[in-house]
Amino acid sequence: MLGHRISVQSIDTMNTSARTMGDQHMELRHLRYFIAVAEEQNFGRAASRLFISQSTLSEQIRSLENEVGGPLLLRTSRRVELTEVGDLLLPEARRALAQTDHALQTVRASLAGDLGSIRVGFSGVAALGGLLGGDLRTFRMAHPLVEISLLEAAPAVLSDHLVAGVIDVAYSPDLGDVEGIVARSATRISPIVAVPHDHPFAGAESVSLADLVDQPLIAFASEHDAWAVDLLAEVSPERLRSASSTLGVLALVSAGSGVAVVPSVLECVAMPGVAYAPLTGAALIALVIASRSGETAGTVRELLRISAERSAG
Q: Considering the domain 191-283 in this protein, what is its CATH number?
């Protein structure tokens, strides 16, 4: 043990001396060359393994020895052996290369979206329509090691969370024009009318916008969810009620507080006391996938790519 401590001190001293004399720097390729010679115990075989000339290999080993400040190899006519210093350097060189290779693999996997995490925000409409689940299922199958976190919120909250960096991607009805946020329209959904089960419109073959003008309207409270109000722009403000979530809207309808224009995917929600009727003459509701502009995270870019391909297909 004492001999090894002396050798380590000698390496430190020789390193200081070598840098003072030559301002040389150890490179990873020097370590690779040294490991090859140490394992092959022959310069010729090591050069063939590295696909370089023997003279080049010898020159690089000499450069490494100059950097260390002393001989690493004992050269004989028959074989090459490690010096005490070389014996100390070999496991450290292997460890350094292994760590470097691991770091490169980790970074490449992260850039490809194979490692890391992704935080996805969504509104209830995106989940009920199957868009969110389909995209995430495809993403998970392609990248099983990525950790996926989900957060349900109203569109206005999702927009704020994107800007603040709380989430990475948002699945939502149109968020409006928000600086720093880019959105792609993923699908469009027809609107329907949700009414109390005992309302005259319950069971109607269709309801028009004109039919709703005199009805109390329940809409999402968020300004970014203005599509629900825009569809019924002629409704007077005193007739408007608001709720902060999809289920909140349906709960108010069930309570008899009014009617609501909602995406047709909500028909799958069997809320007691709520009936649905087709709506004519209304624009389709756009569902978007939004992210921060200039996003560089591999996981985010990969989810956006998968979603775009699924939408196109």
A: 3.40.190.10
